[in-house]
């Protein structure tokens, strides 16, 4: 059975109980209700679609779309489906900050003209709530009727929200070859610079040529930090005081559906398959690479996220697909930064130890008139003997256990369920309101019992990502007044509170610090901390930090005062968040890409996170703040100097473009005594091995478990960098161990011919050394003394 998101596993369990016990009534989720999901699969997608899944596959063997309950069951049972996760939309999450990261030391200004490393010739992509394109910081400071925005795609301009006019078109086609010819976008409206400038020239036209608006202001503020030019004065400041990091970059903007209040009045736009974020990224990359006279390098900022413990890992389908795009050989001149999240001080993660034979009671108060569905997840060591139950405040104090669900514990027609999978180290529960539409107010209690012989540490999460806004352990939000729900000794922690989008191993995740002065940077309490929930956990997240407290940047039109003249306007507002920190990093990457326009995400990451490129965290930190700082504070000047000094950085784990080395390495292999036989073996059996990976679920599982795709990317990188030394390990796994484990599964499913032909090579596994280069490996294998008579000898073409 596929690895199911806990909330989906609980849903299927509840449905089964209701079906087997008609006396419980009708389950509140009907069979025909569409659920937005993401899946990872192997083999032919046609077999997945045949189950009734209405989605869109990606080249990464992931797919996103909608499934009703019967289809969800069929997917969960299908041998090609590896995992199913709930596909969740994100939430939206300069005058001192730009000097603090020393961005203003790589460019200079004379009047309204900039020079130096300014981001000129680089695209800054902002995927957010949109942009106030009328704001002066996004216009040419010399000619304010010219815009610095090349394209805007508004995903929210759809029937039911803001229907397109007959003259307005969706942005199809997508023509950047790495995305594939089948990649289409057929919703929303696209505007270009001509549309924007026509509206600037005739602001009173009805309707305007460009009808796009930023109704929230978040995207406008973020864009101003990354690349605003600071041209207009504030009400109390001179012009060019609040200048962004890359003031001459060109913008490509996406207003993403689901970020602004009111967007979700209409379900996912038709044609998205719940894939709006990936569509937005594909659009920005495509327009940067094909929408200008020449391809442009692009730095993309995503100040959005969601905290969900079940998706807080690098292999969730969304992150997997994004990182596969970034790892494409053609993905040069691309950088991506995500906000780490603002859940560090929101008490959404509790952690406590339950002694052997003990029970931890977790009470919380639900106020009157509460209409929200409450979901929670508990994590612990796999194999622990944990049982959970819930006691409701109903007059009978009804207790719901794993053996039964209840349709009355939260009032008539409700659904209260708990479930555990101790072998996987996870328990979860759900409390749905009944026919009254409201939950029973009063004290509810989660009972967590450890029936094992040793203490067990339990991590509890209130899930912000189920689409329903779960409970918080200390519910201090204005909408939910009341006392803390977890009295001592249960403790909350800021650790492992990362946005599910900020958990990638290749993209940059950015935390936030506040500035008193350059010598006194303080990590903000709200900034989310790692580690992720990867098994084993990613060593440190976020990757680095940037200013994110009291950041002045462009305000959108609703934040301007109603003044009669521009000189009295206050064009800037201050906001806090990792949303404000991330565009400092995206802007810095734009500066780096101006110097090195062919750099990959991996090269940018290596340069940015080099200890010589950052300002070290302050001393005397708590363990939680050590995790929250990453490698330190971003420094744009040092990062630009880093890429200026070296024409090619050795990076990991993606490819580096140096194709001229390819023929010489191939020739070196073929010149060795065993070269032609080895090459023939590869040609003969590569299709068989790939077929097993794509169509045999057990082989695919081991392939991913031993980090096969990552080792493959490292091999490609080494192919283009013959002097590069092997990495000692990936997440604690050495190359020798990975190869041995994969060989073990091949012995069960590969052909006897393959097994017989590779048998003479098996002793080579013990000969690999972690300090070897690819050239040294070729020499060792090519001159291996084992008699190669059993190897295939067909010619190499």
Automatic annotation (TrEMBL):
Pfam families attached here?
Answer: Peptidase_S8
All copies of the Peptidase S8/S53 domain together span: 119-630
Return the Gene3D superfamilies for the record.
Answer: 2.60.120.1290, Peptidase S8/S53 domain
Q: Where is this region: Disordered?
A: 391-430
Keywords from the UniProt entry: Hydrolase, Protease, Serine protease
Q: What SUPFAM superfamilies does the record tag this protein with? A: Subtilisin-like
GO terms of biological process kind: proteolysis
Q: Which domain of life is it from?
A: Bacteria
- Sequence intervals crossing the membrane: none
The UniProt entry's sequence similarity note says:
Belongs to the peptidase S8 family.
Q: Name one GO molecular function term.
A: serine-type endopeptidase activity
**Residue ranges, compositional bias (Low complexity):** 409-423
Q: Where is the composition biased (Polar residues)?
A: 391-408
User: What is the official name of this protein in its record?
Assistant: Subtilase family protein
Q: Which residues form a coiled coil?
A: none
The protein's organism comes out as Dinghuibacter silviterrae
The residues annotated as the active site are 128 (charge relay system), 218 (charge relay system), 579 (charge relay system)
């Amino acid at each position: 059975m596929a690895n199911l998101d806990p909330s989906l596993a609980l849903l299927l369990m509840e449905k089964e109980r209701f079906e087997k016990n008609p006396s419980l009534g009708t389950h509140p989720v009907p069979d025909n209700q569409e659920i937005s999901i993401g899946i990872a699969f192997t083999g032919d997608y046609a077999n997945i679609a045949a189950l009734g899944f209405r989605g869109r596959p990606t080249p990464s063997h992931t797919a996103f779309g909608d499934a009703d309950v019967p289809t969800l069951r069929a997917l969960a049972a299908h041998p090609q489906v590896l995992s199913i996760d709930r596909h969740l939309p994100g939430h939206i999450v300069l005058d001192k900050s730009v000097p603090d990261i020393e961005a203003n030391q790589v460019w200079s200004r004379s009047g309204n003209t900039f020079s130096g490393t300014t981001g000129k010739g680089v695209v800054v992509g902002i995927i957010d709530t949109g942009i106030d394109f009328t704001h002066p910081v996004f216009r040419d400071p010399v000619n304010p009727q010219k815009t610095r925005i090349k394209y805007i795609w508004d995903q929210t301009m759809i029937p039911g929200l803001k229907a397109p006019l007959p003259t307005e078109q969706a942005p199809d086609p997508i023509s950047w070859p790495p995305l594939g010819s089948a990649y289409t976008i057929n919703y929303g409206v696209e505007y270009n610079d001509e549309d924007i400038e026509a509206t600037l020239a005739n602001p009173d036209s009805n309707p305007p040529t460009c009808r796009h608006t930023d109704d929230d202001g978040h995207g406008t503020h973020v864009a101003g930090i990354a690349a605003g030019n600071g041209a207009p004065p504030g009400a109390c400041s001179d012009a060019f005081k609040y200048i962004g990091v890359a003031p001459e970059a060109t913008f490509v903007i996406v207003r993403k559906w689901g970020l602004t209040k009111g967007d979700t009045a209409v379900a996912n736009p038709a044609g998205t398959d719940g894939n709006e974020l990936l569509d937005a990224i594909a659009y920005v990359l495509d327009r940067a690479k094909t929408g200008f006279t020449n391809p442009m390098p692009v730095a993309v900022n995503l100040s959005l996220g969601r905290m969900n413990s079940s998706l807080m890992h690098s292999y969730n389908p969304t992150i997997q697909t994004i990182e596969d795009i970034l790892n494409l050989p053609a993905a040069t001149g691309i950088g991506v930064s995500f906000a780490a999240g603002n859940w560090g001080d929101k008490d959404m993660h509790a952690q406590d130890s339950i002694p052997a034979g003990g029970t931890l009671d977790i009470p919380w108060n639900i106020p009157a008139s509460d209409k929200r569905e409450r979901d929670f997840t508990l994590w612990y060591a796999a194999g622990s003997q944990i049982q959970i139950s819930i006691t409701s405040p109903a007059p009978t104090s009804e207790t719901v256990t794993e053996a039964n669900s209840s349709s009355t514990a939260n009032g008539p027609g409700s659904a209260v369920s708990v479930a555990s999978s101790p072998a996987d180290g996870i328990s979860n529960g759900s409390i749905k309101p009944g026919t009254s539409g409201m939950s029973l107010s009063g004290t509810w209690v989660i009972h967590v019992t450890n029936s094992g012989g040793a203490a067990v540490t339990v991590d509890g999460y209130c899930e912000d990502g189920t689409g329903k806004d779960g409970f918080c352990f200390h519910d201090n939000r204005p909408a939910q007044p009341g006392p803390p729900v977890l009295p001592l000794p249960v403790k909350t922690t800021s650790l492992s509170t990362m946005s599910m989008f900020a958990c990638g191993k290749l993209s940059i995740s950015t935390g936030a610090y506040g500035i008193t002065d350059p010598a006194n940077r303080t990590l903000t309490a709200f900034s989310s901390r790692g580690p992720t929930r990867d098994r084993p956990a990613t060593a440190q997240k976020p990757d680095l930090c940037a200013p994110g407290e009291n950041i002045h940047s462009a305000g959108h039109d609703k934040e301007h005062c109603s003044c009669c003249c521009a000189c009295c306007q206050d064009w800037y507002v201050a906001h806090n968040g990792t949303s404000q920190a991330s565009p400092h990093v995206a802007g810095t990457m734009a500066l780096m890409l101006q110097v090195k326009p062919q750099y990959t995400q991996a090269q940018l990451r290596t340069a940015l996170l080099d200890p010589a490129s950052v300002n070290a965290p302050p001393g005397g930190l708590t363990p939680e703040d050590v995790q929250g700082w990453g490698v330190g504070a971003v420094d744009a000047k040092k990062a630009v100097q880093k890429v200026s000094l070296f024409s090619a950085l050795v990076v990991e784990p993606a490819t580096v473009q140096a194709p001229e080395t390819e023929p010489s390495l191939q020739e070196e292999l073929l010149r060795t005594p065993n070269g032609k036989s080895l090459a023939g073996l590869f040609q003969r059996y590569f299709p068989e091995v790939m077929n097993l990976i794509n169509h045999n679920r057990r082989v695919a599982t081991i392939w991913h478990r031993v980090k096969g795709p990552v080792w493959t990317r490292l091999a490609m990188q080494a192919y283009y960098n013959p002097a590069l030394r092997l990495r000692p390990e990936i997440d604690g796994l050495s190359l020798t161990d990975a190869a041995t484990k994969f060989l073990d599964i091949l012995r069960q499913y590969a052909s006897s011919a393959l097994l017989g032909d590779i048998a003479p090579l098996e002793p080579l596994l013990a000969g690999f050394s972690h300090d070897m280069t690819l050239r040294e490996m070729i020499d060792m294998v090519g001159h291996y003394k084992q008699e190669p008579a059993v190897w295939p000898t067909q010619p190499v073409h």
